[in-house]
Design a protein that fits this description.
A hairpin with a 2-residue loop joins strand 9 and strand 10. Strands 1, 2, 3, 4, 5, 6, 7, 8, 9, 10, 11, 12 and 13 form a 13-stranded mixed β-sheet that branches. The chain is 23% helix and 47% strand. It is built from five helices and 13 strands.
Length: 243
C-alpha cells in the first residue's frame, strides 16, 4: 500500500531539474500542516511547499530511500535517507527518523523529519540543537539534550540579557520559551563551521507577519555543544512582512 508518506518521498525524488514538480505536494498536505525538518519549523501548506522548493533549488541531484510503517491509529513512522550532489558538485548524505500524522481526509497534518546522521557535521549539530527545542515534554527533552549539550552548557541571549548555565537550567528555560507565542516558521538560512565553532543564521516569522533574524555561534566540545551565543535584533528592529 502506498501511503501519503511514500508519495511524499516519491515527489521529492521526481523534482530533479524541475522544482515545479513539487507543486504536487499541495495535494498531500493539510492547509495548516506543520513541518519539522531537521530542526527547522514551517507551518502552512504554501509555506511548506516554498520551503521544499528552496531546498531543491540548492541541489543538482538527489535520491531518497525510505521505509514506512502504518500504526494501528493510522499514524505513519519510518526511516529515511537521502544522497545527492549540491550545486558545487559536492556529494552529501543525510538520514533520520520520520513520522506523519494524518487528518480526517488522509492528508498530512504534521510531518516530522529528524536528522540523526549527515555528511555535514555542522548542519547535523545545528539540527540536534534546534530539534531539542521543539520537544514539548521536559523529561523527553532532557533525554535528548544529554546527547546534544555538555552538562555545564552555557546559553547567552542578548534580549533579554540572559545567561543560563547547565543542561537542567537550559531545559527549564526552553520550557519557558515554548510557552510564548509560537512562530509560524524558523528556518536556517546559512551556516559556517570553523574548527570547534559553528556560526549560523536563522529567520523567524510570527503570526501577523512579524519577522526577525538572528545569528548563533555554537562552541563545540567533540560532538557536544558547550556554549550557545545568540545575536539578534530586539522587537523594535523586527520588520513587518509576509513571506
Amino acid at each position: 500500500m502506498t501511503t501519503p508518506l511514500d508519495r511524499y518521498f516519491e515527489i521529492l525524488d521526481s523534482a530533479d531539474g524541475d522544482i515545479r514538480v513539487l507543486d504536487a505536494l499541495r495535494g498531500l498536505f493539510a492547509e495548516n500542516v506543520l513541518l519539522l525538518h531537521g530542526g527547522e519549523l514551517v507551518r502552512g501548506r504554501e509555506r511548506v511547499i516554498t520551503f521544499h522548493r528552496r531546498k531543491a533549488a540548492g541541489r543538482k541531484a538527489i535520491e531518497h530511500s525510505w521505509a514506512v510503517a502504518v500504526n494501528a491509529d493510522g499514524y505513519l513512522t519510518g526511516k529515511w535517507r537521502e544522497t545527492g550532489v549540491d550545486l558545487h558538485g559536492g556529494r552529501f548524505s543525510a538520514s533520520g527518523d520520520v513520522a506523519a500524522a494524518l487528518d480526517a481526509d488522509g492528508r498530512i497534518a504534521q510531518l516530522d523529519l529528524t536528522l540523526t546522521g549527515a555528511s555535514d557535521r555542522a548542519r547535523l549539530l545545528i539540527a540536534k540543537h534546534l530539534q531539542a527545542w521543539t520537544i514539548p515534554d521536559p523529561a523527553e527533552r532532557a533525554e535528548a539534550m544529554a546527547d546534544v549539550y555538555t552538562e555545564d552548557v552555557t546559553f547567552m541571549e542578548p534580549e533579554p540579557d540572559e545567561v543560563v548555565v547547565g543542561r537542567d537550567a537550559l531545559n527549564d528555560y526552553v520550557g519557558m520559551v515554548r510557552q510564548k507565542t509560537a512562530p509560524v516558521s524558523v528556518t536556517v538560512e546559512s551556516h559556517y563551521p570553523n574548527r570547534q565553532f559553528i556560526h549560523f543564521r536563522w529567520d523567524s516569522v510570527f503570526p501577523g507577519g512579524r519577522t526577525t533574524i538572528g545569528w548563533e555561534v555554537l562552541h563545540t566540545n567533540g560532538d557536544l555543544i558547550e556554549r550557545i551565543v545568540i545575536f539578534s535584533p530586539n522587537d523594535e528592529s523586527a520588520t513587518e512582512s509576509v513571506r
